[in-house]
Amino acid sequence: MRQPIELLSKAIGYSFNDLGLFENALTHRSAGSVNNERLEFLGDAILGFVVADELYHQFSSANEGQLSRLRSEVVKGEALASLAHELDLGIYLALGVGELRSGGQSRNSILADALEAILAAIYLDGGYEAVRQVILKLFKSRLKRLSLDTQKKDPKTRLQEFLQARKLMLPDYSVVSVEGEQHEQQFCVKCTVEHLQLACEGNGSSRRRAEQESADCMLLQIYKIDEL
Amino acid sequence: MRQPIELLSKAIGYSFNDLGLFENALTHRSAGSVNNERLEFLGDAILGFVVADELYHQFSSANEGQLSRLRSEVVKGEALASLAHELDLGIYLALGVGELRSGGQSRNSILADALEAILAAIYLDGGYEAVRQVILKLFKSRLKRLSLDTQKKDPKTRLQEFLQARKLMLPDYSVVSVEGEQHEQQFCVKCTVEHLQLACEGNGSSRRRAEQESADCMLLQIYKIDEL
User: Fold this and answer.
1) Is residue A177 within 8 Å of residue A161, measured between CB atoms?
2) Which of B44, B211, B213, B216 is catalytic?
3) Does residue B63 carry a pLDDT above 90?
4) Residue A113 annotated in active site
5) How many alpha carbons fall within 13 Å on the CB side of residue B66?
6) By CA distance, what is A129's nearest residue in B?
7) In order of start, what are the domains of chain B with their CATH numbers?
8) 8 A C-beta contact, residue B52 and residue A45
9) Which of A40, A99, A116, A213 is labelled catalytic?
10) Residue B107 and residue B204: Cα distance in Å, rounded?
11) Which of A25, A51, A157, A226 could be bridged to A117 by S-S, CB 3.0 to 4.6 A?
12) Model ipTM?
């Protein structure tokens, strides 16, 4: 069942004047000819700029190549999908019957695109400053945990190093589910760190990717706790 | 001889509060460790967003793919270099001795990068609305002449069709100069339309590219005259 979009509005921290724009951003092309594809184009550009601006100031000694790589870590499809999962975006999407049946509401590409479309909708509804604030809030932990040193290491490696440095047991990864047909399977993996009593799920088109996503999610949780 | 940057400031239509930022944007990496590379990263993102925003509104029936192609026509390196040539950007650049000797001040990539860096400098100096206005003014004709129909045709073809439709003689293309060493030659080609008493130069890494650039420049001139 699709959930009322007001709940998502709260999670994002933005109230739309024009709810039609919000609806539009949540409509996948499988659900109609008026869908979120154009908004996604605009949202991608907005996000790219706001994140570039932040990184430019946050990493005052990084060169152009390093800034590009840092940005890609924040705005790449998998990172956006992971944020979309946190927001439970899937349950608010309008999808065609076929996409619904094949689990489109948890497919990373659909979630990432919808998130970008929402950002464009906020921009069109409330202007540049409004969307900038939303982006900075939504991506706060992700921006904060970026570092020039760690950017080359993948999430599983970083999580392992974090735990080893604290003499904690290594995380456990287990497959929760595998959905979809042979050529477009969707894996869900749970990462558990017993000592911290934390568990995180990650999705991806392969077991490896889902594991990395779950480790990334775990790092994010740990980081958020760190922030408190 | 490097020219005083105040002149360029006029051509761009923006007065800097902090001239140091402007200097920074005009400094190629060959001229020092404090150069325009980081600014270029930021400027590229700003330009991408402002142009995406314009195209989103200007082409309300274009789909995502069409919007992407239209944007690329405006922000691709050659298009930026052509605008930089119009602004005579080369004579304001700070270049190292080697780059100066090998004609770096007229190299497309150096010019395009500096133009993006200037946009970032304006953003940092005057804020988002200031840079948006500068971009819209600088790219006005280029944005205006975009069309969904013609985007697939190259400039030479479009210029030929324009002239044929008016029963005018076809343009003449002649090589003005070839500079640089074998592996990075820079061609300059002049396109002349006798009947209109117009001539335009284009630069590029091959004769073909330089011809296309000169045709593009000619189309732009014709379009500007059209606007009057």
Assistant:
1) no
2) B44
3) no
4) no
5) 15
6) B128
7) 5-145 (1.10.1520.10), 155-227 (3.30.160.20)
8) yes
9) A116
10) 8
11) A25
12) 0.71
Greatest pairwise CA separation for chain A in angstroms: 55
Summarised one tens digit per residue, pLDDT across range A21-37 is 999 999 999 998 899 99
Any idea what the Cα angle at residue A103 is, between residues A98 and A105, rounded to 5°? 100
All residues at 6 or more sequence positions from A66 whose CB lies less than 8 Å from its CB, including other chains: A59, A148, A151
| Mean pLDDT along residues A122-133 | 97
Neighbours of B131 (CB within 10 A): 23
Structure tokens belonging to residue B53:
């925003």
Task: State pLDDT tens for residues A27-77.
Answer: 999 998 899 999 999 999 999 999 999 999 999 988 888 898 899 889 988
Burial A124-152 (b: 16+ CB within 10 A, else e): bbbebeebbebbeebbebbbebbeeebee
Specify the pTM: 0.72
Mean pLDDT for the stretch of residues A153-168: 85
Closest to B52 (Cβ–Cβ): which among A37, A41, A67?
A41
The pLDDT of residue A17 is above 60 = yes
